Amino acid sequence: MAEPEIPESFLEGYAQMLGETAVSGRRPTREELDIRRDLGRQAAEAGHQLRALVRMHLSETRTAWPAAAPGASPASIAASTDSVLAAVEQAVDAFADGFERAQRLTVRREEAARREFIDDLLYGRSNLGRLAERATRFGLRLSRAHAVAVATGAEAYTETDAVPRQVESALLARFSGRKILLTTKDGRMVCIAPGSQPDVLRYFAKQAHAATDGGRVAVGRAHRGPGGVVQSYDEALDALDLADRMDLDDPVLYAADLLVYPVLTRDRQAMADLVRSELGPLQKARGGAEPLLRTLSVYFDAGCVAAETARRLSLSVRALTYRLERIHQLTGSDPTDPTHRYTLQTAVIGARLLDWPAKEL
């Protein structure tokens, strides 16, 4: 594709300055250099390429190079040439300075607009219709369903850090042309992708987990519309919080797989009553309820297999059996009895969700 033609106006006063420099040996004035900077700014705002602009200046230099005066000595010609080249250097440098300043200002404005859009999008602020209009500028069509993945690591990240840039490079290399928005928010990496392209978020999760050296990623469900992005983002954050409270060790969590937990806590008071009724007696044990509560949690996670539970807890099978018997004595419910198991397991899940016994119910 051919580059757009560059107006000759960006060379305004350039040839005249070179001619006067050749005659008098003077340097470009401050006013002349300020004009070059202003022209550089205008060229950047017009969307021209700096390389083409520099090439245009050099071409004009060859065309307008002042001829030597008749009878001029080699020394005077050399001095004139040196002055002209110095003037070319100063003029082009001033032009490039103005161009780069304008570009940096444009980048800062774009970054500010992008950050404002992301904040409005993820927090559900701004008029939804206006938000959808702004989204097209960043490659999103909010009338369609989108899903959000959130990745955490050992440290807080910003967009300029090496880890987010590494993840972004991997995604753009694999999914060039896809409508994907990558950013950071509150120290976490965030990826927004069309709900019809789950492979994007799976790949993001894989790359983020590796780049953060074992960090955790949560993926919200796909929802339609501007409010759908907020909902998916909130689901991903809730999944990360749930993983911490439930000691889930999965590196990638899907909100769709964790729906049972919000269901269990929808009636918080009923769950609190169950925890107090079923597990409250464990507080009478030596060392409090926490060691026996963890024993139950690991036992259920291990499929109620005593040998595997003992291995995970670094106990002998005999020591584990004693603990299970002690739980039976205190609560009246036998963890090894299928008829008691469901109630106990539900109470254990409720205790983790409600952060009991650390918090009073």
From TrEMBL:
Pfam families assigned to the protein according to its UniProt record, in alphabetical order: GGDEF_2, HTH_30
InterPro entries, alphabetized: CdaR-like_regulators, CdaR_GGDEF, PucR_C-HTH_dom, PucR_C-HTH_sf
Gene3D superfamilies for this protein: PucR C-terminal helix-turn-helix domain
CdaR GGDEF-like domain mapped to chain residues: 124-242
Domain PucR C-terminal helix-turn-helix: 292-348
Family, per entry: Belongs to the CdaR family.
Protein name in UniProt: Helix-turn-helix domain-containing protein
